[in-house]
Amino acid sequence: MKGIFFITGIDTNIGKSYATGWLARELNCKGIKTITQKMIQTGNVGHSEDIDLHREIMGIPFTEEDKERITFPIVFSYPASPHLAAEIDHKPIPIEKITASSRILAGRYDVVLLEGAGGLMVPITRDYLTVDYIAEQKLPTILVTSGRLGSINHTLLSIEALEKRGIALYGVIYNSFPKSDEIIDNDTEVYLREFLKKRYPDTRFWTLPEIPLPSRE
Ligand SMILES: Nc1ncnc2c1ncn2[C@@H]1O[C@H](COP(=O)(O)OP(=O)(O)O)[C@@H](O)[C@H]1O
Ligand SMILES: [Mg+2]
């Protein structure tokens, strides 16, 4: 792996931050120098809770880039979709800041994992979607999904949205947490694996285990 990868999910709260921190840790363990970035953080002031979580999972202290806020260049206080959070804070969204930050990080690291806010169709402004940014930047994308009822539908819809815009589906991360109905969980994982094997044979499939964190017990 090399370059900037966009991490999205089938929904908000699906485990994108856990998956991003975990993949960064896995890649670093293999000697691939990896950093994470949050595209737009909402619901925080002066820090990014997602970057905090990534570092905790990666088991590293804040990096120089975190201290300079290159890894979370845009933060809004209200915990809402970026378009609304920006309006509430009366601030524009300088998209070019996101791109510039990714470039700086890509110059210093082998891999940059760029975590989006919510899913693919989340508005950045009233007439610009997350998926528009991914398409413009031509970022290979990793989709986080789960085993809960409804995930097959949301996963296939997300994959269609990527395909329609010519965005490469680099990988799918199946989050095995939380466990709900074992029969549905298992079948969802099998279904998605087989779907990808048939339709997207080059797409990787990872299973994300439950990650217990001391700070969250
Ligand atoms: N693999 C996992 N192990 C442990 N907890 C998880 C895992 N995936 C998700 N969670 C739980 O679900 C919540 C939402 O996950 P998060 O990664 O923050 O979602 P997203 O970034 O998509 O909004 C977390 O706060 C955590 O409690
Ligand atoms: Mg997150």
Jot down its keywords:
217 residues; alpha/beta; Rossmann fold; two-stranded parallel ribbon; 8 helices; binds adenosine-5'-diphosphate; binds magnesium ion
Explain how this protein is built.
With 217 residues, the protein is an alpha/beta fold. It has one domain (3-210): P-loop containing nucleotide triphosphate hydrolases (Rossmann fold, 3-Layer(aba) Sandwich), CATH 3.40.50. Helix content is 41%, strand content 22%. The chain has helices spanning 16-29, 49-58, 64-67, 82-88, 95-108, 130-137, 151-164, 182-199, and strands at 3-9, 34-38, 41-42, 75-76, 111-119, 123-125, 128-129, 141-146, 169-175, 204-208. The strands form 3 sheets. Strands 2-5-1-8-9-10 form a 6-stranded parallel beta sheet, sandwiched between helices. α1 packs parallel to α2. The model has no long low-confidence stretch (mean pLDDT 97). Bound molecules: adenosine-5'-diphosphate (ADP) and magnesium ion. Magnesium ion binds next to α1.
Quote the average pLDDT. Answer: 97
Radius of gyration: 16 Å
Secondary structure: helix percent:
40-55%
Helix/strand order: EHEEHHEHHEEEHEHEHE
What is the fold named in CATH at topology level? Rossmann fold
Q: Give the CATH class.
A: Alpha Beta
Q: Count helical runs.
A: 8
Which structural class do the helices and strands define? Answer: alpha/beta
| Spatial strand sequence of the major β-sheet | 2-5-1-8-9-10
Strand content: 15-25%
Unreliable stretches (pLDDT < 50, length at least 5) are none
Number of domains: 1
Can you count the beta strands?
10
